[in-house]
Design brief:
InterPro entries: Fumarylacetoacetase-like_C, Fumarylacetoacetase_C_sf, Hydratase-Decarb/MhpD_sf
Radius of gyration: 17 Å
CATH architecture: Alpha-Beta Complex
CATH superfamily: Fumarylacetoacetase-like, C-terminal domain
Number of helices: 7
Protein name: 2-oxo-3-hexenedioate decarboxylase
CATH class: Alpha Beta
Keywords: Lyase
Pfam families: FAA_hydrolase
Structural class: alpha+beta
GO molecular function: 2-oxopent-4-enoate hydratase activity
Length: 257
């Protein structure tokens, strides 16, 4: 039996992102399953690296019940981050570069060493150098921001852009810090880091394990986005976005047309 056309599917997703044009879901038509979807993701990112981009981290997706409910899937997933996706804290991006961008508040970790997928949870303490508040911009390449689990995995977990705020030492407790998402000074989402698999450190362990299953190991100096603490909010031109995490501070960005 002939399997899904990995290169062809990756090409469709790259073209959708480049043109800013949404496409129909692909998994049902192509027979894409989770393993094949991660192969598509790898091919998609490989093409970005061929353009001169560099891998700078890993991101988790669907780590909160709010996110699972919002997109209609029920399994934790992971994707890759490149330097072209990173926006400086307080910087700006063009909404027109995306199809239907949404923003969400996150917690970011800075890797101090390469963790082993098989090491115990306690390894987090020596693997992570610092923590920071962050904003992720997600942008599904599928019409109506609707997709199956294999679809979103293939689409690099809807990765669009990200902002990392000031790094700080990892506090003793990360499991129940208050989180706010503000748009133009108005609070639009309120949450807690407990929404990220109960504790963002647990998301880190899951990311190391799941990526390791596909032969990917996190590297020293990489950024790790642990997942969203609230549902995502649509981003409109002219908006000023700020994510605030208790004890960690804030990260911000501005949206141009």
């Amino acid at each position: 039996m002939i399997g899904p056309d990995i290169a062809g599917i990756a090409g469709q997703l790259v073209a959708a992102a480049d043109s800013g044009t949404a496409i129909p879901q692909l998994a049902a038509e192509t027979g894409l399953d989770v393993d094949a979807a991660y192969a598509v993701q790898a091919e998609l990112v490989r093409r970005r690296l061929e353009r001169g981009e560099r891998l700078v981290g890993l991101k988790m997706g669907l780590t909160s019940k709010a996110k699972m409910a919002q997109v209609g899937v029920d399994e934790v997933i992971w994707g890759r981050l490149t330097d072209a996706m990173r926006i400086p804290d307080g910087g700006s991006l063009s909404v027109g570069d995306f199809i239907h961008p949404r923003v969400e508040p996150e917690v970011a970790f800075l890797l101090d060493r390469q963790p082993d997928p098989g090491e115990p949870v306690a390894g987090f303490a020596t693997a992570v150098r610092a923590v920071a508040p962050a904003i992720e911009l997600i942008d599904s390449r599928y019409a109506d921001f609707t997709f199956s689990l294999p679809d979103v995995i293939a689409d690099n977990t809807s990765a669009g852009a990200f902002v990392v705020g000031p790094w700080c030492p990892v506090p003793d407790g990360l499991d129940n810090l208050g989180v706010l998402l503000e748009i133009d000074g108005r609070v639009v989402q309120v949450g807690s880091t407990a929404a990220i698999l109960g504790d963002p450190r647990r998301a880190f362990d899951e990311g190391v394990r799941l990526a390791g299953q596909h032969g990917v190991r996190l590297r020293t100096g990489w950024v790790f986005l642990a997942g969203a603490a609230t549902a995502a909010v649509a981003l409109r031109p002219g908006a000023h976005v700020r994510a605030v995490v208790e004890k960690l501070g804030a990260a911000s960005l501005r949206a141009a047309a």
